[in-house]
Amino acid sequence: MIREMTKADFEVFWPTFESVINAQETYAFDPEMSFQQAYDLWCESPLKAFVFVEGDQVLGSYYIKANGMGPSNHICNCGYMVAEAARGKGIARQLCEHSQQVAIELGFKAMQFNSVVSANDVAVALWQKLGFNIVGTIPSAYKHSKLGYVDSYVMHKQLGH
After folding, report:
1. What is the arithmetic mean of pLDDT over 46-71?
2. Integer Rg of the chain from CA
3. Residues in contact with 36: Cβ distance below 8 Å, sequence separation at least 6, in sequence order
4. Closest CA to 116 of 73, 150, 84
5. Which H or E element spans position 60?
6. For residues 156 and 133, what is the distance between their CA atoms, to the nearest angstrom?
7. Where in the sequence is the domain holding 55, given as residue range(s)?
8. 96 with 127: CB under 8 angstroms?
9. Per its UniProt record, what Gene3D superfamilies does this chain match (predicted)?
10. What is the per-residue pLDDT for 161?
């Protein structure tokens, strides 16, 4: 089930969030950020945040926000995280599909991912299957904990008609 995220949900999700940012393989977030900084970034700054829950477990989450201001506020941006034990079960796909529907309901005309780490093959392939195109490559934009400097992609998809 996907629903809006509460602070209690984020508390359950925090170990996943912390694990993802500490791995330094997919997100350009400070691995030293506090719980409150992470909560503000993921839940307070965006327009909305959602969770994928199964029983009392939070298996994944995403946020949605405008990618720009003023004349660019018709394009949204999202970030997704899935608990390590739940990966490979289609949760990211469900979260992304849900986020696209929410984006359309909120009036967004397109969705853009500003920095998809090129070494994140699973995410790149999934986003492409879901209709996102690589519209730009930022050379050596991400310092991967295992691979060193790798490229990041800007990915984009028009929504609706």
Report:
1. 96
2. 15
3. none
4. 150
5. strand 57-66
6. 5
7. 2-158
8. yes
9. 3.40.630.30
10. 61
